[in-house]
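Lab notebook: predicted structure, single chain.

Context: the supervisor wants predicted structures on file for every construct in the current expression panel, including those that have not yet been purified. This is the next one on the list. No modifications to the sequence; it matches the entry in the shared construct table.
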Amino acid sequence: MEAYAPLLVLGLLLFLVFAGVEVAVSLGVVSLLAIFISTQDVEISIAFLSTTAYNALRDYVFAVVPLFLLMGEFIARSGIAYDLYWGIDRAFKGLRGRFAYATVMGNVVFAFVSGTSLASATTFTAIAYPQMKRGGYEPHFSLGLISGSACLGMLIPPSILMVVWGILTDLSIGHLFLAGIIPGFILAGLMAVYIFAVSFIRPDIVGHGVRGAEDAGVETKGPSGTDMTISVIGLIAIVCGALGGIWAGLFTPTEGAGIGALVALGVGLVKGMKIDEIYKAVLSVGRTATPLMIIVFAAQLYSRTLQMSGIGNQLQSMITGSGMSPEGMLIFMVVVWLILGTIIDSISIMLLTVPIFAPIAMKIGVDPLAFALMGILTIEAGLLTPPFGLVVYAVRAVIPNEPVSMSTIFLGALPFCIMLMIVVAIVYFFPITTTYLIQFFQ
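Prediction complete. Output recorded below exactly as produced.
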């Protein structure tokens, strides 16, 4: 029985997930079964379950998730993202494809204070898409661009995926945050090159020379100088106070997230955010963070179960003993992530695979930070792929009355999937891209 335990546990887990059972429930059931197979004692198995639940949820680092979500929610509701987009757009005035450049640059800056791709996707769909539509942009390009550039929200810190990866692997969350900056800028650079190429090869896609709307200067009333100043100062304070404090070693990630949320609230109040909006922000974060925390707890249980029962080592031995080269094993893991990305969400993919894949990467000599970024980038690509690309669905949900099909947005997002995989290759061949800033700050 024990010889077949790894296959039984893995098979049951995949069956439950694909059958539509909640990931947290699936992980809990499989973990309990694995411990029972190992101990042959129901009472010991239940005691292990309760002890793990207590130890996991009392961990101080768990508070970082709702605090970063709260920071991003306050920023989104305060209008900072709107001011940010307009400020960048004005700086690019006169440049062909300026709305596209402003969307990418806006997502780069917004990523430093949001923590999630879905927040970036919904925010910039509401802000940037109307401008690009008035400017004569083709829908597949504008919506694909918004979807693709939103992925910067999970790569540039603070990133919820990085927090979850750090919890699952015991990697420093502060180091993960630093590791994502250079790959994030590389990805943004590739997006800018793509926009440049499209605007000159097919200028009609960005409205140039067809309706002439952007070239003629499509404008609507932007933020006042006072609002812009407040937003810029607020963004600098949040980035320097929260992230800078974490990188400088002054704060833990949890403390930095708390300071960031407090500063974001202060900026929102200065910009006129009402009490009912604050209440809605807190309520929204509670609805998002509670199931997320339950899932992460279940993942902690799953990870500890794999270690305690020995099943994790057996699964890892099956992969490492398959005869594949180190490069072959990495390709295998990337393919698994891409396949799972078409059917389940990014955090669930991490919870299912990282406890098994991360130790394998260490055994074959891949830098843990480089592997983390490779995994996050690949999983992010899954957010743009059919049939369940969550970022694409988030973008579509913001414009329910637009005559744009899901396939149109998926087609427009395809080049950005390719860019994500190019950055995966760059990180693998040049791991210094993930470790340079860590060495610089040390």
